[in-house]
Design a protein that fits this description.
alpha/beta; Rossmann fold; five-stranded parallel beta sheet; 11% strand; globular
Length: 141
């Protein structure tokens, strides 16, 4: 079992650094978990690339639809309700001086006793200071 954050899931759809490494997680025979906030974060990241002119608007909307239908509404990614994680995430946010949404992923990794895979160097650095949570930086051994 692995917890993936939005920095990884976004790379499933956007061809950029570490795209292939992120996609390789989909081929592994392990359950992938994420807090429900990932729905919003990945959709937002895709649309942001369109707003910046990096990808055409129609393509971004198609990618968001693919994300919602083939990942969120399927069993490709097991989503955990944010509410269940919120109290621990708030505690971690205060302790780590880290954004609360990012701490939802850390709280889930802690609860599930599963490694968190991230492409976010700051998330990896902050999470590494926590005992009992394994952080794997995408692209690192």
């Amino acid at each position: 079992m692995l917890v993936v954050d939005a920095s990884v899931a976004t790379k499933w759809f956007i061809v950029e650094d570490l795209h292939e490494e992120a996609k390789s997680l989909l081929g592994m025979d392990v359950p992938l978990l994420a807090p429900r906030i990932i729905e919003l974060e990945v959709s937002s990241a895709i649309v942001a690339r369109s707003r910046r002119g990096e990808i055409p608007r129609a393509h971004a909307l198609k990618l968001v639809g693919h994300w919602l239908k083939d990942f969120v509404d399927s069993t490709a990614l097991h989503l955990v309700e944010d509410r269940r994680l919120l109290e621990e995430a708030a505690r971690l946010s205060a302790v780590l001086d880290q954004k609360l949404p990012d701490c939802l992923y850390l709280a889930l990794a802690q609860e599930a006793r599963a490694p968190l895979v991230t492409a976010d160097v700051q998330q990896a650095r902050k999470g590494a200071s926590l005992k009992g949570i394994e952080i794997r930086l995408l692209g690192q051994a």
